[in-house]
Specification:
- It contains three helices and two strands.
- The chain is elongated and about 140 Å long.
- By secondary structure, the chain is mainly α.
- The protein is about 40% helix and about 5% strand.
- A two-stranded antiparallel ribbon has the order 1-2.
């Protein structure tokens, strides 16, 4: 129901105001001016120790992540774990110290491979390259000297 009033100022309401009063804000004090604005009060030694401890923890975590499955995980396409492969490599290196070579086939002065693992499959075939190389080298040298002699005689 509307209430009419003879003035422009409304009458006070009959119901009390339920909201609490707003807090009054006091002005904050101005901070003191420091003569050296970049100066901080820090314990550098303690911070360095904390950082080195954190670095060690991170390195340990990285080692744990890298070595996960080292003893029990068999990679795809392999038949042994990484630990077993490492142990076999150590055994092979001990055997090579006693006189066995783990390298590939050796090459002799003629340029042929010495592979004792199997028979020579082309032993029955005649090597056609040996005779031609000696003759062609001598013939090439004769051709070069003849060309040089002809040029020198023309001058």
């Amino acid at each position: 129901m509307p209430v009419t009033s003879p003035t422009l100022v409304p009458r006070p309401s009959t119901l009390p105001l339920v909201l609490p009063r707003a807090p009054r804000v006091n002005p904050t004090p101005i901070p003191k001016i420091d003569r050296y604005p970049g100066r901080m009060n820090r314990d550098l030694q303690r911070e360095m120790d904390d950082l080195s401890d954190e670095e060690k923890e991170i390195e340990d975590d990285n080692i744990v992540i890298r070595d996960r499955g080292f003893r029990w995980l068999i990679p795809i396409g392999r038949h042994t774990t990484q630990l077993e492969e490492m142990n076999e490599a150590e055994d092979d290196s001990e055997d090579s110290d006693t006189g066995q070579s783990g390298g590939g086939p050796s090459i002799n002065e003629d340029g042929e491979e010495n592979d004792e693992s199997g028979p020579d499959l082309d032993a029955s075939m005649e090597d056609m390259d040996e005779g031609e190389t000696a003759n062609t080298d001598a013939e090439d040298m004769n051709d070069v000297t003849e060309d040089f002699e002809e040029r020198s005689s023309d001058v």
